[in-house]
Design goal:
Blueprint lengths: L8 H13 L2 H8 L3 H15 L4 E3 L4 E3 L1 H24 L7 E4 L6 H13 L5 E4 L4 H10 L4 E4 L6 H4 L2 E16 L10 E2 L7 E2 L9 H14 L2 E2 L9 H11 L3 E4 L8 E7 L2 E11 L5 H17 L8 E2 L2 H8 L14
Parallel strand pairs: 3-4, 7-11, 8-9, 12-13
Antiparallel strand pairs: 1-2, 5-12, 6-10, 6-11, 6-12
Helix pairs in contact: 1-2, 1-3, 1-4, 2-3, 5-10
């Protein structure tokens, strides 16, 4: 196989994605690029190497012998590039960019505030990227450094480039119109929502992990998932859409108040939203160390990782939160 003087790492990244997915559509989604652009990059790499890398049919993609030879080298090149980027993106004076998903959520905000107390000489800057799925792409691209959310709800291709530290099993709640028949209850048994249509973020591509969690809960209790809605940007627009549809909204117990609604904890069972601190694999930054220490400190002090009796959480999340086989899992603070 002739070797060109230089190979664009982007072409190698496209090749590795296709070689691992054996599917151009899935590989394009993994890299957040159009399938046409991905195919173009693979063809360009094949021209530069003078070798066919994949046999394509309408039903399958099969790597050639040259592709099998290239794959371990391409992986090493990309790993070295990622290490280089992480090393030069982690200067101690650079701010750590921390995504809190939404201004009203409590868990990430408390961790960030405590981290600032632990590292007052470091700059930890908040961002609001609306969901871990959306933030994950920015984490991998280096546009964000850390985020919070449901790690097990991410695509495995995204998880492979990230690390996590479990922070909280956050009890879930439902937000109801104030005149809803269930609004008079102090707590809402999950079974009483059977037959209801409940909004769980469907239509927001940045919160797929949350919609998946809601779908798993609803499927077990005869609750309908509200159909996708146009993405509402900003609290005011979200509140307007919810008031218009009058669908109950799946939330967590610390979800901020909305006008003309009540928030009620869900019980029997208590469904849990697994929250992890998530960051790019290989990231080294003193601000991240402070963030991880703060998360571990608060989780211990507040009992955030204790499971209430009779609680509910998908098995895939139990595995991820205990560190048993989850890609990139870290279960303790630095040095643990």
């Amino acid at each position: 196989m002739p070797v060109p003087a230089d190979i664009d790492p982007r072409l190698l990244r496209a090749f590795v994605a296709v070689a691992e997915e054996l599917h151009f559509t899935r590989a394009a989604a993994r890299l957040y690029v159009a399938q046409q652009a991905l195919s173009r990059d693979v063809r360009r790499l094949e021209r530069e190497l003078g070798a066919e890398l994949f046999v394509r049919t309408t039903r399958q993609v099969t790597p050639t012998a040259d592709a099998e030879r290239l794959l371990p080298y391409a992986r090493r090149v990309l790993a070295a590039q990622d290490d280089l980027r992480a090393a030069f993106a982690s200067g101690p004076s650079r701010p750590l960019l921390v995504d809190l998903n939404s201004p009203g959520l409590v868990t990430g905000r408390r961790v960030l505030h405590r981290a600032r107390e632990l590292a007052p000489d470091r700059e930890l800057m908040a961002r609001y990227e609306s969901g871990l799925t959306g933030a994950a792409a920015d984490l991998l691209a280096g546009r964000l450094d850390a985020s919070f959310g449901r790690f097990a709800g991410l695509d495995p291709a995204l998880r492979s480039g990230l690390e996590q530290q479990p922070v909280r099993h956050e009890p879930m709640a439902v937000v109801l119109p104030e005149d809803h028949p269930l609004a008079a209850r102090a707590e809402v048994p999950v079974a009483t929502l059977a037959g209801e249509t409940v909004y769980a973020g469907a239509g927001n591509p940045r919160t797929l992990e949350w919609t998946d969690l809601g779908s798993r809960l609803f499927a077990e209790h005869g609750i309908r998932l509200a159909p996708p809605l146009p993405l509402a940007v900003g609290d005011e627009e979200f509140e307007r859409i919810m008031a218009k549809t009058r669908h109950p909204v799946l939330a967590v117990v610390d979800f901020p108040a909305m006008p003309r609604t009540v928030r009620r904890p869900l019980v029997d069972p208590v469904p849990l939203s697994p929250v992890s601190l998530v960051w790019r694999r290989g990231l080294v930054h003193p601000g991240l160390d402070a963030l991880r220490r703060a998360a571990a400190e608060l989780a211990a002090a507040e009992g955030w990782l204790r499971r209430p009796h009779g609680s509910w959480m998908p098995a895939v999340d139990e595995t991820a939160m205990t560190g048993a086989g989850g890609s990139g899992t870290r279960t303790g603070p630095p040095g643990s």
